[in-house]
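ok trying this again, last paste got cut off
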Amino acid sequence: MKTLSIIAALAGIALAAVSLRPDAATPTAGRETSKPLAPASADWPMFRGNPGLTGVASGSLPDKLSMLWSFKTGGPVKSSAAIVGGKVFIGSDDGNLYTLNLADGKKIWTAKTEGAIESSPLVLDGRVFVGSMEGFLYAVSAADGKELWKFKTEDKIVGAPNWVKSPDGRANWILAGSHDFKLYCLDAATGRSNWVYESGNYINGTPAVDNGVTAFGGCDALLHVISLDDGRQVKEVDAGAYVAGSAALADGRAYFGHLENAFLCIDIVKEKTAWTYKERNFPYYSSPAVTKDRVLFGGRDKRVHCVKRDTGEADWTFATQGKVDSSPVVVDGKVVVGSEDGRLYVLSLKDGKELWNYEIGQGLTSSPAVASGKIVIGSEDGSVYCFGTKKN
């Protein structure tokens, strides 16, 4: 994801293939069944591609990539894009939410907020949801950017919103965390609050969703597992350190890194750490991609890490020249990720071999969005870039 601003306390799913049932009291009625890790659609409607935040895209990616277009905004782009229906939705530190044509990068509309937008948009049923640094969660029309509602929290919103069906299946609910320590559940159509859960410190990342629960790590060094029906805490697991990024949920386990230089797999059912990966003394801000047998994430040690999903044993690493806060995306046997060295990389999922890179110049803390054979990513230079195959 982007570089996350953590002050004071820090001086800081398509869904999983197997249902997550932390205990017998976990609500499951009215929920959709779990789905494969890769999304069924060619779109990329939200941060990490799906409510489980697994970072796996469907479709193919060309072996030879070219820059198709770039679009200049008025500030650094730390937000990560959503791609739906041939449109790109992305925020900028200039306070605008932009909608661009995926084919040529031309602006379709902008929606102005009162603060920088580091949050990544969620596109759902003709609406776009995004948080801003002045503490509002906005809902705007995907067709023209017209504001539908906004909800005020008590501090900035850095992470992206997520969504879930209401227990009766009749409505969509939006989830968003804030630096006011609270996780909010709002009605997607009206912005009305359904429930609020209060944690012990800042919530920086996006809450992951699976089969009746949501899970997130916070700056209180805990993994919170919350009932989606009513906001009741189902589990609370010690993470060991502040969690700056977003966890991914898959098969009853949560995968995430923290600021004391370790990446964890937590078995939520057993309420304990299944494995810990700790190679060098550098923190992890990147959110992971989770495949059927591997977990991939960036580190502030300037490397991309690939570990075995069942044991956490190192598979391969790839060295860049800058911190890797960008969150990797897996597609078509490839890994797409940005680095603060100013380059966008495509690596082989099998062995980490570099297949392609493009030097943008300034740092990439935004995470890539991949859809329809194209990659979209924002840069600290204030531009949004799209890569794919040029037509003759």
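PB: full thing came through this time. Residues 12 and 316 are 29 Å apart (CA to CA).
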